[in-house]
UniProtKB/TrEMBL annotation:
One of its GO terms (molecular function) is double-stranded DNA 3'-5' DNA exonuclease activity. This is Exodeoxyribonuclease III. CDD domains: ExoIII-like_AP-endo. The lineage of its organism: Bacteria, Pseudomonadati, Pseudomonadota, Alphaproteobacteria, Sphingomonadales. Its EC number is 3.1.11.2. Residues 4-248 form the Endonuclease/exonuclease/phosphatase domain. Belongs to the DNA repair enzymes AP/ExoA family. Its cofactor is Mg(2+). Keywords: Hydrolase, Magnesium, Metal-binding. It holds the Pfam family Exo_endo_phos.
């Protein structure tokens, strides 16, 4: 079973690339982020025609997450995170498919830092940690997949110096990510590539793709029950190099 995290950076702009990916790779589940579209404008029929059921959580112009499942309809479990009733951002959707629980996550960027956007990022991570802890207590296979906007380690970026002042690499961001893992989650890609040096994002600016100046911010965290079933993980890097591609590459884990 191939489960993919894919920040599409605007689903309307990337629809051709997304449908191409679904047809060529036929992943079993795809967690999408940064849809940048209200629910009523999302391409539900096109996704259904490609053979996927989906649960959508859109937002006009910004954010937006979804979970797609091949040949079946995911069952929605939770929309958004508890702990801040005034938070209207569409950044979390959680579904069930068979015995598996899967969440699509679009964690706040947090720039510029310091400031209110960075404060919001850290509080959002605290709320995510609360939800993750509750999911672990269910003792079921769970995958928390998404764009975490956190570079966990120095070897997860092409240049520590270039990213040193970015919210993605601040000690507070990294500490919260480590605390999440310490609950008992397995970072699938890190387990497969323990030496780092594998990227999931390349900026559109300054020839980052051509220079391979990327970093790893798309993560798939597995509960112990899911980690026991892991048989592989990777990045479908070639899709980043296609015409009008997202600045993220599809990142995946394979489970028995």
């Amino acid at each position: 079973m191939k489960i993919v995290s894919y920040n599409v950076n605007g689903i309307k702009a990337r629809m051709e690339r997304l449908l191409e990916y679904l047809a060529e790779q036929q992943p079993d589940m795809v967690c999408l982020q940064e849809l940048k579209g209200a629910d009523e404008t999302l391409p539900v029929k096109d996704i259904e025609a490609a053979g996927y059921g989906a649960v959508w959580h859109g937002q006009k112009g910004f954010n937006g997450v979804a979970v797609l499942a091949r040949g079946q309809q995911p069952v929605e479990r939770q929309r958004g995170l508890e702990g801040d009733p005034e938070d209207a951002h569409s950044r979390y959707i959680e579904v069930e498919v068979g015995d598996l629980i899967v969440a699509s996550i679009y964690l706040p960027n947090g720039n510029p830092q310091p400031g209110p956007k960075f404060d919001y990022k850290l509080k959002w991570m605290d709320r995510l940690a609360d939800r993750a802890r509750a999911l672990l207590a269910e003792e079921r296979p769970v995958v928390l997949a998404g764009d975490y906007n956190v570079i966990p380690n120095d070897d997860d970026t092409f240049s520590v110096r270039a990213m040193a002042s970015d919210a993605l690499m601040q000690p507070e961001s990294r500490a919260r990510y480590r605390e999440l893992l310490a609950q008992g989650w397995t970072d699938a890609l890190r387990t497969r590539f323990p030496a780092g040096g594998i990227w999931t994002f390349w900026d559109y600016q300054a020839g980052a793709w051509q220079r391979d100046a990327g970093f790893r911010i798309d993560h798939l965290l597995l509960s112990p029950q899911a980690a026991d079933r892991m048989v592989g993980a990777g990045v479908d890097k070639d899709y980043r190099g296609r015409e009008r591609a997202s600045d993220h590459a599809p990142t995946w884990v394979a489970l028995r």
